[in-house]
Specification:
By secondary structure, this protein is mainly β. It is built from two helices and 14 strands. Strand 11 and strand 12 form a beta hairpin. The protein starts with a strand and ends with a helix.
């Protein structure tokens, strides 16, 4: 989904029983250690920026002219009022470093045969979830379905992916939804509109100073 580097334009829609809200974002990423998220709309949130550098996550709020470092305790909290957590968006935890993996029973999603992978955090890992079940398309290696469990083994969120299409020369899902299982008529949808892969981005782009200037 990210490549060596990626530049993404996307829309996130938060749906609640009595209202809905949309945001347009630009996202830059480089490897597993660098990410920048810029909110472009709505107007009241324009310019809010999130930066990930390694394990550190920063938030620039232009209306307050203030930069905040997010502590690890905030990674499990809602990101901008959506059903994504801060960890989901900036990927503080590493699926490679922080989890043990095992294969489950194969399944079929969107007519595609999929591997089922169970991910359990290592004892020393500071991660949000107690375990995850991830379904990966066998042919094109797309993540099509994920279940998020808490530390007691209770299912909390379900992620579904839809509408595979070529973006930036790669076949990827272009629409995702996160559904909280215990909250009726509530979900968050994320749509990819444009992706550019593997264009060089200097490490210096992902700086606290650049958070305040990026447009």
């Amino acid at each position: 989904m990210r490549g060596n580097t990626s530049q993404v334009e996307m829309n996130i829609k938060t749906i609640r029983p009595s209202w809905s809200r949309e945001m347009d974002l630009r996202v830059w990423s480089k490897g597993n250690d660098f990410a920048m998220i810029l909110i472009q709309s709505p107007a009241r949130d324009r310019g809010i920026t999130f930066l990930k550098r390694g394990k550190e996550v920063w938030n620039w709020i232009p209306t307050l002219e203030k930069t905040i470092k997010l502590p690890p305790s905030m990674m499990s909290q809602s990101w901008m009022g959506t059903d994504f957590t801060n960890d989901d968006l900036v990927r503080e935890s590493s699926v490679i470093r922080d989890f043990e993996h095992s294969l489950g029973t194969d399944t079929l999603i969107l007519g595609r045969p999929c591997h089922t992978i169970w991910m359990v955090p290592k004892p020393e890992a500071a991660v949000v979830w107690g375990k995850l079940m991830v379904c990966i398309d066998k042919k094109d290696f797309m993540e099509l379905h994920t279940r998020f469990y808490d530390e007691e083994g209770q299912l909390v969120n379900i992620m579904n992916a839809y509408d595979p299409a070529l973006l930036g020369g790669r076949l990827i899902p272009t629409r995702f939804e996160i559904i909280p299982v215990e909250k009726r008529n509530q979900k968050t949808e994320m749509r990819y509109k444009k992706v550019v892969y593997d264009q060089p981005i200097a490490d210096g782009f992902f700086s606290i100073n650049n958070m305040k200037n990026i447009r």
